[in-house]
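USER: For my understanding, would you kindly supply a protein sequence with its structure tokens?

ASSISTANT:
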Amino acid sequence: MTRFLLSLCLGVLSLSAAEKPNIIFFMADDMGMGDTSAYQDFTGNAAEVQLYTPQMERLARLGVRFTDAHTPSSRCTPTRYGLLTGRYPWRSRMKWWVLFGAQGDPLIEADRPTLASMLRGAGYGTGMVGKWHVGLRYRQSNGQPAAAWIDADLTQLLHTTPLDHGFDFARYTSRSHGTSGPDANHRNAAKRNRPNQTVGPGHLHGRKAVGATKEGKQLVAEGDGAYVLTRLGSRHSDHALEFLNAHVGGAQTKERPFFVYYPANSNHGPYTPDKAIGGRPVAGAARTKSGAPMDARHDYIYENDVALGRLIDWLEATPDPRRAGRKLIENTLVIFTSDNGAEKNSNIATGPFRSHKGSCYEGGHRVPFIAAWPAGGVGDGRADTPGQSNDSIIGLTDMYATFAEMAGAALPDLASGAKGAEDSVSVLPALRGKTLRNRPPLFFNDHKEAKADPAAAAMRVENWKLFFDASLLREGIAQPVELFDLAADPKEERNLIDDPKHQHLIRKLTQTALRYRRVATRLADVAPVRATFDWRSEEGGEAGALAKAFHLASARGKTAVDQGTGLRLTLAGEHGGKFSTNFRGLGLGGGQVLQVDDGQALRIQFDRDVIVESVAIVAGNGVCGGFYQMGKAAPLAIYCVDADNDEKTQHGVISDLGVLRAGQVLRLDSKPHHGVEAAGQWRLGAITVRILK
């Protein structure tokens, strides 16, 4: 595994002087492998039921089709986070579900690099059109950050948008199209589009809500700013070409490569196909391979096929300003994929796989993935050949490292404290036709079939797939519940978890899961030695040694030494006289209660460089609010093991905080860092770190 990662890093050096390709990443919404005829021979769908997608077939002939490609989650928001950051989404606060409502607090940290910021740093022009759904922050009427939708003023420029995450150009919806704004063509449009509407901001251009009016949150009902669901397909396609034409025609940009991120709204429900895109009919135009008309859902899937074909046509027709006498299609990597499996449990839509969207069974996260880049050896670039097929295991989290290698950009140095691409490995060799072996494991989360808690997860290692209950993501405790051999059982019908001959394998895979759960994939071999400081005592029982030592001690500063490693921790409180410990952990006196509250904070330092694996914050009867901050990194909202600030249950340990240098401060603060969110009232339960070699 270490050799695999090292070879990928060396590959960046060998490609750094090569001509950088353009990149177009087109991602459908809720599309299964059976929803495209490009995989018909693989899924086995009959011609009478198979949607005909000629442009996806065209891309597959030009390039390579992957049959074992995966999203990091089975739902919208977390997959987008994992794709854009190269980091598993469950390392953020999002343990399952999606950002919801008209505002979800931004999920990507302010200082976290993304695909777009990495490529922009490598000289690319960056644009996105389509569905964002990783969170926005609005502004109040006074220009200050808004706490939520309720205090947002849509006439103000938005505070946090895709422009803050590496994109130069952005034309997008805040989340799924049906919940991003009141549809101006809806039969009850006048009732839904009122000053107090709670649906969403409508069309967003950069930081601007283009349909905003001075009538509260009411949006314009007519004209280009009107939010019409059945016009989104052509609108996004037109905006993509607007960005591309401006880039290749601009005196300051034409000598630079471009990156287009195109996460389409289709085919997420409601099914609202456009009338036409670029003059090509969409609504009513979907056909089976045998030529029969299909329904609105398939029209909406077909919308992506038409939009993809329009891009390929443009690339084939447009001269490359960086390569005289050549067309852009030759040196552009075009990728088509989906954000998760099909939204419906259909053997046709999901192909030969179990379940669908919202599941960690294969139908929830195994997706179509087609790529072509003729000049880079990704396919032969010929539409008259059958194209290549590759069964390598790849994930959307791998795109960060893959694009970095193509662009000659080094990955962030995690051991030095940098953030970025924690779980990403380059799959460029697979794109070029090789079969990957011995890659690091892939994880998938959000499992609606879990018996108790959908924040469950599965791990894939070669042909083995091991499922865990929610304690893996919530607490870092591994409880395996299902095992499948996908080579022999791709439909996941025979659970081998109780098979005596597989118990050694299960123990081995469980240790692997813990290893990668507790620390980033690219740091798994760097810091094996752990130390835990736990201030909790058993409820109603004897306090532990650490709890006893800190109880009623001065909060000006107290040290503790881990007996196993000799690691020294120093803990100080702000605005508190003495520490207070109980079965929930450590708090501070001097506030409203004996917790950390009322503007108080804890400051934690170590005498050696460490990776902060997890911090357990316990709300108890308090409030999960405030922020944490590693050194000078961007502050992030606190979530607790027993509470959170979302309507969905995103509780758990704060995990994978990164590297804290000796003497640097980890700050746990009860104050809201924007001044508008909930203040905290909680205790510090425990902190676990790994000592860097």
